Amino acid sequence: xxxxxxxxxxxxxxxxxxxxxxxxxxxxxxxxxxxxxxxxxxxxxxxxxxxxxxxxxxxxxxxxxxxxxxxxxxxxxxxxxxxxxxxxxxxxxxxxxxxx
Length: 100
Hints:
By secondary structure, this protein is mainly α. It has two domains: 1-34, no CATH class; 37-100, no CATH class. It has six helices and no strands. The protein has helices at 2-9, 13-20, 23-34, 59-66, 71-83, 88-99.
């Protein structure tokens, strides 16, 4: 009975770590939790992109999917790619498509 009470009232390991951690550790934990992938393979930041599963794709797979995207969708992919992996193949193809 006492064990049940202790288990129910004890903080989780995550809560305990957060309670004793400094702000840098808490911020890092928050970033890690927000980077959890959705079933489509996108992290939270990639969910709004027009390419499903973006974060799980290779550069060549992304390049194949860029053709046919609207200008605003290309801008979103470009901005996301610049902020994250900075793959030159993808960024170059986006520039090429935007130029004409």
